[in-house]
Design a protein that fits this description.
Layout lengths: L2 H12 L4 E8 L4 E7 L5 H21 L7 E6 L2 E7 L4 E8 L4 H13 L3
Antiparallel strand pairs: 1-2, 1-5, 3-4, 4-5
């Protein structure tokens, strides 16, 4: 997919009410590949956190001899971080406020992550 296609996918994710930003990250090294976010969102920090969560979830499922995760969802006091696997090693990540439509966001993330190929 082209950079323009990635930006379209990110805009679709940020179009969900309550989403503060969307990123495409490399889960191998935690780097931001592409992003669309509010100015005050520390996207490099979000990418590093997301990559660490993905790595930890993969290690846990490997220890359990289970299928690696295709999504990771971290909920905090003021919002959530959702990540969905795209073509390896890419993951699509969204940062949402606590009032975001998380059900709709999950669906949009899955569709957009599938389109990253």
């Amino acid at each position: 997919m082209s950079i323009a296609g990635w930006q379209d996918a990110l805009r679709e994710v940020t179009g969900v009410a309550g989403v503060r930003g969307a990123l495409i990250i490399s889960a191998e090294d935690g780097l931001v590949i592409a992003e669309t976010a509010m100015d005050d969102l520390a996207t490099a920090d979000v990418a590093a956190l997301s990559a660490a969560l993905v790595s930890r979830a993969r290690r846990c499922t490997a220890a359990l001899h289970a299928t690696p995760p295709e999504s990771v969802h971290l909920v905090g006091e003021r919002g959530a971080v959702l990540a969905v696997a795209g073509p390896a090693p890419l993951w699509l990540v969204a940062v949402a406020r606590d009032d975001a439509e998380l059900g709709r966001l999950r669906l949009v993330l899955r569709d957009a992550a599938g389109a990253l190929h």
